[in-house]
Design brief:
Blueprint (H helix, E strand, L loop, with lengths): L14 H4 L1 E4 L3 E7 L6 E5 L8 H15 L7 E7 L8 H14 L6
Parallel strand pairs: 3-4
Antiparallel strand pairs: 1-2, 2-4
Amino acid sequence: MLPRRLRLPRAGFAVQKAGKRRISSHFSLISAPALPKKGGVAFVVSKKTAPKSVDRHLLKRRALGALAPFASQDRAVVVHARAGAPSLSYAALRAELSALAQESGLKSR
């Protein structure tokens, strides 16, 4: 789990309209400069993507763990899971999210 200071607050979700979007086969990543004190990382999994709450929470924990090295307070990052994401292994999930993060210009800590 990410520390609270690196989690994107609800007000930070406004970056979805102005940010750059990168799409892979299982994820969609939106990144933009953060408003003051509104930076961090958020991960969204819909019920359509993973109907069971157990699967949604597992996917969210794994993805936030994979994105932890790229989290910072000066960037707002929102990741949406797409169809097929719950069936990925952790290694494949981490590789795909790392490639998306690097493609969108996020730097590892």
